[in-house]
Amino acid sequence: MMTRVRFAPSPTGFVHIGSLRTALYNYLYAKKADGVYVLRVEDTDQSRLVEGAVEGMLKSMRWAGVENAEGVCINNQDAVEQVGEKGPYIQSERLDIYKEHIQGLLDSGHAYHCFCSKDRLDKVREIQRSENKVPKYDGHCRGLSKEEVQAKIDAGEPYVIRMKLPADKDIHFKDVVRGDVVINTNDMDDQVLMKSDGFPTYHFAVVVDDHLMQITHIIRGEEWLPSTPKHVYLYEVFGWEQPVYVHLPNILNSDHKKLSKRQGDVAVEDFRKKGYLPEALINYIALLGWSPEDNQEIFSMQELEKAFSLERVSKSGGVFDVNKLNWFNNHYIRQADLNRLVDIAVPFLVEEGLVSEEEAKQRHDWFVLAMETVRESMDYLQEFAQRIAMFLTDEVAMWEEEALEFMRLSHIPRLIEVLESKIMATDEVSEDFVTAMFKEIQKEEGIKGKNLFMGTRVILTGQTHGPEIPKVLTLLGKDKLKLRLEKAKQHR
Ligand code: GLU
């Protein structure tokens, strides 16, 4: 049988890092098994709908490189479209399908109408709590006759439809990560399957859809593990084959609680906006809950597709460590194509008001060199603005204490003079020019080593450390160097 997996997000407006990992594992598993990865939109909770959420979510998935060929897709024109034979893939467009299936359950006696008001249900729960019982539906409407039900419907009474669980029955299922799970129906509730607004609940829709879409493996977050017995029971009463369940451990904060917004960035979009590269984010989160057979850490998507296996998904959650993510991102920044990095970083400069888009285009080569010069020092590309600010100002913006001390050395006035005459004599300052200039100064003036290199850096940048000095001088260019040399004289 063809392996078919799905990622089934609710369109809440953003993609949580944990959801991206769920999607990724589904995607990887489908690739490995030569199967299909489907994306289904679960929008049965109409109160939580957010305008444009599906589009935003699909764009984030595309950015991350976790794209689906079936289900709800985004095309090259950024339009949301549904692709595949087993649709519609948006639950709110499947209401007829749920109606038909709930009727089947009502007819076979596996579901019933419930007319209990919210007030009544609240009271029942309150009493149960006061008696230290787990709150659950007390079965008040289970025994209504067909006629009683019809009379209430005719009278316009609102109702939901509940699942009719048998008493004292063990529900078994096997989870690839958790092993065998058994729950007794006495510890379960008569779950609402259809709400009074005519929409199915998640629990009902998910089973109907996964079956009709021929999903073979359900790979999702462990928060759904307690719901799985209800789903398994529905498969049983429908007479459908149970899929393979795989519940992934949560991604945790450093305090070992579930990763949440309160502790910093958790949305894929937050990371994109800061200038994280998708390959870094993917590489990092792939390892938060799955471990490869050896100690390899760096994985491209293609390598993940080959190496991934459900058997090596761990039971306990990985702690999200932004420093580790930064390490991965820095690794990929060091290797990435410079033009690509500049394209990602320029909007940050424009945002900071350091350049206009036009100027960035005109001076593209300059920005490429700037990127090459500073990239090793960056955790994410938003930092580019701050790293190159020193090359964009006419004067040294900040003098380090140590640099000021260095400026008092006796060879500095002569070095300033020589630099000035050599730089003024050239048409353009390039890396080759700077290298040649240093050779000349060593020979002609006898200024060498730290005195020469650190001296030049201090004179022109006010700092004792920084990127390679020929690159720094090239980036500053003749005009800025001239202004800075003049200023440097005043720092004596
Ligand atoms: N719509 C559910 C969610 O938002 C999907 C759960 C599942 O994969 O079954 O997480």
From TrEMBL:
Residues 341-488 form the Aminoacyl-tRNA synthetase class I anticodon-binding domain. ATP binds at K261. The keyword Cell inner membrane does not apply. Keywords: Aminoacyl-tRNA synthetase, ATP-binding, Cytoplasm, Ligase, Nucleotide-binding, Protein biosynthesis. The keyword Glycoprotein does not apply. It catalyses: tRNA(Glu) + L-glutamate + ATP = L-glutamyl-tRNA(Glu) + AMP + diphosphate. Residues 4-327 form the Glutamyl/glutaminyl-tRNA synthetase class Ib catalytic domain. It is found in: Cytoplasm. CDD domains: GluRS_core (cd00808). InterPro entries: aa-tRNA-synth_I_cd-bd, aa-tRNA-synth_I_codon-bd_sub2, aa_tRNA-synth_I_cd-bd_sf, Glu-tRNA-ligase_bac/mito, Glu-tRNA-synth_I_codon-bd_sub1, Glu/Gln-tRNA-synth, Glu/Gln-tRNA-synth_Ib_cat-dom, GluQ/Sye. Catalyzes the attachment of glutamate to tRNA(Glu) in a two-step reaction: glutamate is first activated by ATP to form Glu-AMP and then transferred to the acceptor end of tRNA(Glu). This is Glutamate--tRNA ligase. The lineage of its organism: Bacteria, Bacillati, Bacillota, Clostridia, Peptostreptococcales.
